[in-house]
Amino acid sequence: MRHHLILRVVTKLLVGAIILFALYVQFHGDFSPGGGFQAGVIMAVAFIIYGVVFSLRQAQRVFPPWLVHKLLALGVLIYAFTGLVSMALGYEYLNYGAFTPHHPEHGQHWGILIVELGVGVTVTGVMVAIYYAFAARPPTISDKDW
Amino acid sequence: MLVMTALAIVRTRRLFATAMLSGVFSLLSAQLFVVLDAVDVAFTEAAVGAGISTVLMLGTLALTGRVEKRSTHSPFLPLLVVGMTGAVLIYGTLDMPNFGAADAPAQTHVSPDYLERSPHEIGVPNVVTAVLASYRGFDTLGETAVVFTAGIGVLFLISALRRRRETGDSGNDRKGA
């Protein structure tokens, strides 16, 4: 894609906006449509489009594979540990009311925010990891054959 | 239009067109979800179905081939199976309440219950998020674990072998070169 100047310029402009939109969907998910799953996918799309238009190697310099693989597991751990923390505070597993006993609504809010963050991190990691796994293999069709 | 796109997917033999058309199909079904007022689902469908999976399909195409192989067996048995499954599914919908019926079980106690409880129990305006992350937190934890497992599976299937082969010469940093 080295010769597609327009694509490259537009991508450069868009990647930031896409990441911003992903963060909005992530942290505004309890007020508007969206949440961890959608935000994770949108975040992954930002890196994937970067990888498609520039090159896989440049995308991997921004977001190295080892970090992707750590994030994969980190998201699930964030989610599961939220449950353990609420258990340690003497409530049921994943009962977010535990975080602020006097005002359970706030605790719910925090819990949802943290849990959604875990979902988002895992989904981003998985999507980018799958893309890296596919794109890292040498293609059998040359660019002209499309 | 959904039906037309589906027919086009079946008819064409060029896999590039198939991948693109399935993206179109996802986008159309996302619009259908918007019409049904399921914005969260529509959002997911548009992002995953039309966005990521199209890219991944194209990535797979680059690894395999561009043209579908001509099938060698007769289409009658598959057609029969598909037709019968479709008929059974349609027969199953006959018992379901009409779309938007006020006396459907889902409308009589499940949804009102969540709608009444979530504002003062959770305090989050988006009830979908409240149900997804709080009332059904276990489900969502399971879903996240499923996504995680899927990612691990793909990694093992596609890239783990490759890395083992590469450790012989220069290690990981050649990945993607």
TrEMBL record, chain A:
Membrane spanning residue stretches = 5-25, 37-56, 68-90, 110-134
UniProt entry tagged with the keyword Zinc? no
User: Where is this chain primarily localised?
Assistant: membrane
Keyword Transmembrane helix appears in the UniProt entry: yes
Q: Where is the Na+/H+ antiporter MnhB subunit-related protein domain?
A: 6-128
Q: How does it sit in the membrane?
A: Multi-pass membrane protein
Gene Ontology cellular-component terms listed: plasma membrane
Question: Where does the record place it?
Answer: Cell membrane
Keyword entries, A-Z:
Cell membrane, Membrane, Transmembrane, Transmembrane helix
Give the family this protein belongs to, as stated in its UniProt record.
Answer: Belongs to the CPA3 antiporters (TC 2.A.63) subunit B family.
Q: What is this protein called?
A: Na(+)/H(+) antiporter subunit B
Q: What organism is this sequence from?
A: Marimonas arenosa
